[in-house]
Design goal:
homodimer, about 90 residues, mainly alpha, Monooxygenase, 4 helices, about 80% helix, about 0% strand, elongated
Chain lengths: ~90, ~90
Amino acid sequence: MNSELIGGIGASLTTIAYLPQVFKIFKTKDTTAISLMMFLLMNIGVTFWLKYGIIIKQQQVLWSNLITLCLAGYIFYIKLKNVIKNKEKI
Amino acid sequence: MNSELIGGIGASLTTIAYLPQVFKIFKTKDTTAISLMMFLLMNIGVTFWLKYGIIIKQQQVLWSNLITLCLAGYIFYIKLKNVIKNKEKI
């Protein structure tokens, strides 16, 4: 396997990985065990990756991080809502 | 800011992000809201990224993914243990 393919599989899997977590939260609305700080840092980090993809004009970096931002952003949003409602700890 | 710095900040933040989640799980041992499938896919994906870093001889890619693998691996391990013990759903 060449390095491009290995990197591509890595990028795809680490993006797709958020999907089952999004489905689980969408179904249960429970984010008690989720760390607010993890998804805050993750979303900021992915935003930097996205900017990196735009600067170096790499479509794959751009799109995988844009999708990750939507998925990780949803998890952060639901967790934040539950914390604000005093239903959960951060 | 140059692209290398932006990518570096992105890599650092998306690695460090797992730390507060690890601390939270270490303290509470609760992973009810965590998706087993998310951390399974994430660990496989990060292993591909790690291999990519080794092939292209990029120290930063290698180390950030090695650290991520330890942190995301711990979360997966505790979740798997809780599922096997029939304490939690996947």
